[in-house]
Amino acid sequence: MNTLKDILYRVPIEAVEGNTSQQVREIHIDSRKVGLNDLFIAIKGNASDGHDFIEIAIQQGALAIVCEEIPVSSFKGVTFIKVTDSRLAAAYIASNFYNNPSKKIKLVGITGTNGKTTISSLLFQHFKSLGKKVGLISTVNIKVNELIYPTKLTTPDSLSINYYLNEMCDEGVEYAFMEVSSHGIDQQRTAGLDFAGAVFTNLSHDHLDYHPSFSAYRDVKKKLFDDLPKNAFALTNEDDKNGIFMLQNSKAKKYTYALKSHADFRAKILENNFDGLLLKINDQEVFSSLIGSFNASNLLAVYAVAKLLGVDELENLKTISGLKAVAGRFQYFVSKKDKITGIIDYAHTPDALKNVLETITDIRTKNEQLITVVGCGGDRDPSKRPLMATIAANLSNQVILTSDNPRTEDPEAIIKAMEAGVNPVDASKLLSITSRKQAIKTACKMAQPGDIILVAGKGHETYQEVNGVRSPFNDLEILTETLINLNK
Ligand SMILES: CC(=O)N[C@H]1[C@@H](OP(=O)(O)OP(=O)(O)OC[C@H]2O[C@@H](n3ccc(=O)[nH]c3=O)[C@H](O)[C@@H]2O)O[C@H](CO)[C@@H](O)[C@@H]1O[C@H](C)C(=O)N[C@@H](C)C(=O)N[C@H](CCC(=O)O)C(=O)O
Ligand SMILES: Nc1ncnc2c1ncn2[C@@H]1O[C@H](COP(=O)(O)OP(=O)(O)OP(=O)(O)O)[C@@H](O)[C@H]1O
Ligand SMILES: N[C@H](CCC[C@H](N)C(=O)O)C(=O)O
Ligand SMILES: [Mg+2]
Predict the structure, then answer these.
(1) Which of 2, 30, 43, 127 could form a disulfide with 50 if both were Cys (CB 3.0 to 4.6 A apart)?
(2) Which CATH class is domain 331-486?
(3) Near ion ligand 4, which residues have CB within 5 Å?
């Protein structure tokens, strides 16, 4: 098993030099991980070119190389496979190498600008509560039933995806839910996966640093649905203006969900306040401790997926009602003494920030002050910076602009770009404090009894990244500790 020939099944090949009946030990796309008898796949990236590391990989023991260009110098005993697209080849090879794990479990992909982590994590919780063995691949972590692994990307590279799906198969996992990012689709990380279904949540301004235009970003997301097999389901949010477009060329069975429009799966919000949501789904009243209308939409998507995967109606509604908030997604608490509400949210796009602030606006009394602490990440779409500041200023009584993950950029320049979006009439609401810790502390000092503090942008993240170094940082911890220390 696992001869080179076997794992090349379905890979579009241009040329082969050497023997393909050798046994491959491991497969790698990073030369630094290559060992004796491994296969190295050279990928042309944005930052570097894997082809530059072919020689190093061979020195480390690679017995075969998959690449888009075979090097001119010859290497004795090494097999070269020339392909048109190394990323696509990597995805097929990974799937073959791990015995096509996605075919053995019911794998559901969730895509869209916002809501992927929330829906996939809620689905994991939901199916776990139903007594199933479940897997999860998300921005926050990767879960193989009880086991939890850290992750750096929302959608990992194809080798990692298939590695974890294989581990899920070994653990007897029946259902797996994974976030499918636009980078993931564009870089073929999810190519060749056998999805039982896919969900589209919504589309708004994001990642335009990477995709050439909004329509290119939209079309990449659509590809997930274009590639679904006939027997899969394609579920889309009809409330989003791109919802129907996503399914246009899909061969899968098409379904819609919506709060506002006519759809196959519908829900109505009966109550929406700081205690939670009261929904009407299929004429049944369902209570959830989750907050905000966007979570009504997320819960409806969870209900619909469970239904499409064959979960019994009553069990479905009962379990939905017990679902708990996902880390860093509208996580909130109320301080003991001054009853200050602290909210931590991962909103890092204009649309998500607007949603969170509108949700708070809908359910607050307006006798209190709403203080928003927010920043924008470095090395990410700069056009969202002024927009996010405009939204924060429009919908809050006080705004503190600060750093998110500056990465390789100057945090003060990012804050300046945000400030440019604030209307001069809102200038009195505005403070800029570069240190995120200091910004959160200042919000706590300003807060009067009953006020609300929203800390947006980093959610579950437990680090702050500056110039490639990740130092411990936790919004929730800093916010709770400061309020306790101030005896508020
Ligand atoms: C822009 C982007 O998506 N980059 C990803 C991409 O990098 P790349 O193609 O530029 O790779 P590269 O660094 O140029 O290297 C090219 C190849 O040479 C190899 N190499 C490199 C050095 C070496 O010594 N030896 C070697 O073999 C690399 O392993 C790679 O195979 O492929 C790499 C391997 O899969 C990813 O780690 C990397 O993610 C970077 C770290 C990243 O930050 N990505 C973010 C933007 C991302 O993907 N985010 C999405 C969306 C999140 C959301 O929706 O909000 C996500 O799914 O997480
Ligand atoms: N259905 C939704 N519609 C709009 N906003 C949402 C929705 N669900 C969650 N949000 C908001 O967007 C933020 C990000 O949510 P979530 O982490 O679930 O999205 P994501 O798609 O996984 O994002 P990422 O691409 O960063 O991984 C949340 O913190 C919340 O404020
Ligand atoms: N998955 C997103 C997360 C952004 C989170 C925000 N805190 C930031 O660092 O910009 C990205 O990598 O673009
Ligand atoms: Mg996510």
Answers:
(1) 43
(2) alpha beta
(3) 116-117, 139, 154, 179
Predicted confidence (pLDDT) at residue 210 exceeds the cutoff of 80: no
Q: Which two tokens stand for residue 344?
A: 């931590």
Higher local confidence (pLDDT), 205 or 4:
4
Annotated binding-site members: 31, 112-118, 154-155, 181, 187, 189, 380, 404-407, 457, 461
Instruction: Report CA dihedral (418, 424, 430, 433) to the nearest 10 degrees.
Output: 40
What are the structure tokens assigned to 303, written together?
A: 């209900």
- From ligand 1's centre to the CA of 156, what distance in Å? 9
* Interface confidence (ipTM) of the complex: 0.94
* Contact indicator for 345, 330 with CB cutoff of 8 Å: yes
Asked if the domains at 101-320 and 331-486 fall in one CATH topology, the answer is no
Q: How far is CA 165 from CA 3, 129, 143, 174, 424, in A?
A: 21, 21, 10, 11, 52
Of 295, 299, 297, 279, residue with least CA distance to 287 = 279
The overall average pLDDT reported for the chain is 95
pLDDT band of residue 105 (cuts 50, 70, 90) is very high
Which residue among 348, 349, 356, 385 is best mutated to probe the pocket of ligand 3, counting the most ligand atoms within 8 A of its Cβ?
348
Q: What CA–CA distance (Å, rounded) separates 86 from 36?
A: 21
Is the per-residue pLDDT at 191 higher than 60?
Answer: yes
| Residues 260, 272: Cα–Cα separation, whole Å | 15
Extents of the domains making up the chain: 2-97, 101-320, 331-486
- The CA distances from residue 167 to 132, 142, 359, in Å, are 16, 11, 39
Instruction: Please tell me the distance from the alpha carbon of residue 183 to that of residue 256, in angstroms, as a whole number.
Output: 25
Best CA proximity match to 207, nearest among 225, 220, 188, 190: 220
pTM for this model (two decimals): 0.91
C-alpha 186 chain-centroid distance: 15
Ligand 1 atom with minimal separation from the 50 CA: 18
The yes or no reply on domain 101-320 and CATH 3.40.1190.10 is: yes
Domain 2-97 architecture:
3-Layer(aba) Sandwich (3.40)
Annotated binding site for meso-2,6-diaminopimelate: 380, 404-407, 457, 461
464 pLDDT higher than 90: yes
